[in-house]
Amino acid sequence: MLCHVSMLCRVYRKPEFNSDHRPVIATCRIKLKKQSFASQPNSRFDVSKLRIPDVEYHYQLAIQNRFTALADGTGEWDKFKDAHTKVAEEVLGFRRYVRHEWISDRTWNLVEKKRTARLNHDMDQYKDLNRQCKKSARQDKQIWAESKAIQGEAYLATGQIKDAFAHFRNLSAACPRKVSPVLDDHGNLISDKAAKAHRWKNRFEQLLNHPSVPCPDLPSTVQEDQQACQEPSELEVHTAVRKLQNGKAPGLCGITAEMLKASGDPGILWLTSVVKQVWQTGVILPDWKTGIILPIYKGKGSPKDCKNYRAYHSYQHLGRYLLRFC
User: Fold this and answer.
1) Same domain flag for 116 and 262
2) Are residues 21 and 151 in the same domain?
3) In degrees rounded to 5, what are phi and psi of residue 63?
4) How far apart are CA 312 and CA 296, in angstroms?
């Protein structure tokens, strides 16, 4: 992609023929423009549809059909993950995020009128409609924020903590996010995105990685437990899945607790074969060990200092429960 940078530019008077343009003579320098790739947000499945009995039945039936079709290789985690993601995409679809949900129909009508006035080159009407549109948008946002606060207080009064904080998070998400620089090891400010990511990586490596401590030799009088352990049963896996909490963020695999519970007995039987394969091979799956570390500000000290942040580890909740058997 090329970018033109004007070095010398001169505008001459209007030509003698009938035209509203002015001749311009400029000296330009051509250079390559850096191509930036916009990051795509992570798409999540609309698991709220699983509350509908018909949708839950179709989801369980689709998982059962895929499990029956795979006569061999049912213990492979990749096939299990791909089956859930493809079925969820077909049956559930992705969650739709509505931007500016607080804008009323009256404001949208003013926006359309303002657009029409701009296309008709009626600048007086455009300026008047622009003022009305901004005023109406401010009023709509204030009304929306007050209604969210009232609903959150009502949920708190009835003990529905989850729904209350969901409304409060909507209020905080409506505020603009400010990206501030951070300090490096020498106290210098870093504003580059790649340099900031490298700084956070070094910080969490120093915080979370500790040198191994040598294990002291135990006395010979201590008797080890020689009780034989059996393979995880279908009942144990079913109990572990039922203990998963709904509404939690999925791991890197994208499978939520609602999707596992809605898969029914075929999904539990398939997951049991995966757990047994991990038990027999002794190799923990990478998706069960890999997570995302998010820096959370402690609320005290300078926000530019990385030491004033705590590490929140978002990992696969399924792996945490199933690793008890492996």
Assistant:
1) no
2) no
3) -65, -40
4) 7
3 state DSSP class of 105:
helix
Tell me the per-residue pLDDT of 94-120, one tens digit each, with 9 for 90 and over. Answer: 887 666 778 888 998 999 999 999 888
Q: Which two tokens stand for residue 113?
A: 């009128």
Q: What is the mean pLDDT of the chain?
A: 79
State pLDDT tens for residues 235-258: 888 888 888 888 777 777 788 888
Is residue 100 assigned to a domain? no
DSSP 120-165: TT-HHHHHHHHHHHHHHHHHHHHHHHHHHHHHHHHHHHTT-HHHHH
- The first and second tokens of residue 13, run together, are 């008077």
Full domain range(s) for residue 282: 55-90+180-209+231-322
Are both 255 and 185 inside the same structural domain? Answer: yes
Asked if residue 62 has pLDDT above 60, the reply is yes
- Torsion (CA) 84, 88, 89, 93 in degrees, nearest 10: -160
Alpha-carbon distance of 145 to 286, in angstroms, equals: 42
Over residues 159-176, the pLDDT tens digits come to 888 778 777 777 765 444
**How far apart are the C-alpha atoms of 51 and 47, rounded to whole Å?**
8
Calculate helix-pair angle for 123-157, 105-119, nearest 10 degrees.
160
- Residue 13: per-residue pLDDT: 77
The per-residue pLDDT for 64 is 86
pLDDT in tens, 264-323: 888 888 888 888 888 888 887 887 777 788 888 888 888 888 888 888 777 666 666 666
Would you call 263 exposed, middle or buried from its count of C-beta atoms within 10 A (0-12, 13-18, 19+)? buried
> For residues 322 and 275, is the Cβ–Cβ distance under 8 A?
yes
The pLDDT value recorded for residue 146 is: 87
Distance CA 316, CA 77 (A): 14
Question: Which residues touch 42 (CB under 8 Å, ≥6 apart)?
Answer: none
Instruction: Please indicate, yes or no, if residue 69 is contained in any of the structural domains.
Output: yes
Rounded distance between C-alpha atoms, residue 326 and residue 240, angstroms? 13
